[in-house]
Amino acid sequence: MYTTAEVDVKTLVTEAKDILAGNWTGSFTKPAPNLYPHQWNWDAGFIAIGYSHYDMDRAESELRSLFSGQWKNGMVPQILFNPEFDYNYFPSSDFWETWRSFEACETRKTSGITMPAVHGFVLQRIYQNAKDKGRALNFVKEMYPKIFKMHQYFYNNRDPFNEGLVYIRHPWESGTDNSPTWDEPMEKITFEKIKIPPYKRKDLDNGHAEHRPTDYDYNRYIHLIDIYRKCDYNEEAILERCPFVIQDPLFNCILVKSNQALIELAGLIGEDTTQLKEWNEKSIYSMNDKLWNPKTGIYDAYDLHNDERIAMEASSGLVPVFAHIPTQAQAQQIVDRLTGPTFSNTADQQIYLCPSYNPTSKKFNPKKYWRGPVWINMNWMLHHGLKHYGFDDLAQQFKQESLELISHYGFYEYFDPIKDVVGKEKQGYGSHRFSWSAALCIDFLHDEID
To answer: Within 270-348, where are the H helices?
Structure first.
């Protein structure tokens, strides 16, 4: 098997740092040079982890910049728009019409949705990696109340039944935009095409259409945004009218992981942890009681709008190991899924860990965004989760195969998981010089460079 010894670690880390430097704007790091000119929510968190090993100024700046767009109700938007490139991306800030909401940020232009709450565990990693603990503690004191307010937003506005499970109201909020997980609820969305606001996609200018979400998907994405605008971004009104209201295991497990990080950080700065512990205990209970599927060994999603379970075939349902949500027995079932034919090698093909969707499914597409390709951030979370449960060899395999893909093809956004493609394809997919691939590569290799 490939090992880190087979790679020129210093060269790889130097290139990763060069990518982050090239995507740096002066206050935040773009996810990629062309397709993504703005600051994205969870990207900023993963990027900050990479910086925390060698440039604390920029690690801190990532979170400061992102939270400068926090809404009054605590929501941290999916996108903070770079005014120099506002119309280079669709939807632009004007399309969101967030001015309709009295909760919206008044000083920054933003989108009107959010993303997975990585920021609590990111802040924890920044503190852990800091050489100057005094400075890092001051940064924890600065960011803690803002991140806590964001968690408060989720539990107060996105948990209508007080289950400890928050919902997403747009596929983009999941981070796994066009995953087949969302196909059924999206297909149930009915609307008159003529009533969709006119728009022109920009993502196809910098990427292959076969690697991106379809126009069918985009019509529904835009229809949902139009609902939010017509509701003036009022959460109660949106819940009543929105046809996409889903409890996603990935989104909730990341929130749990950040709850746990905030509980630990609160102890350093003398903050009360009662509310965080209450949220966290309820979330873990409901993840296991409502979303865990003991027959399939994976966490399912739940469609609140249609009141039905969504059978999970995406890697999102395996990531709860990252937040230590499963019992040891459940974690073993997850490992069995990861190493079985639905996520690993089959009789017909060798697979890189971890495809974003079950490669034996008819919906699997090895090139199309979140419908099959390997993503470095998902592998990073699974690596750390598996280590916690003592599955060290499998955890190491996740790290090794991530580095192998980067070493062979470069710092792409996502990669074909089919191993017999190796040597035939000359590159990965999506954006090249992708920031979180670079940042998490640095984190993977920090033991070798320290």
So the answer is: 274-286, 328-339
